[in-house]
Amino acid sequence: MLIPEWVFTHTAVIEPFEGEGAYGPIFGDPVTKKCLVDDERRLVRNAEGSEVVSDTTIFFPPGTHCPEGSRVTVPPGPDGRTTTVIASYNRSGGGLPTPDHTEVVCR
Question: What is the pLDDT of residue 85?
Answer without folding.
Answer: 94
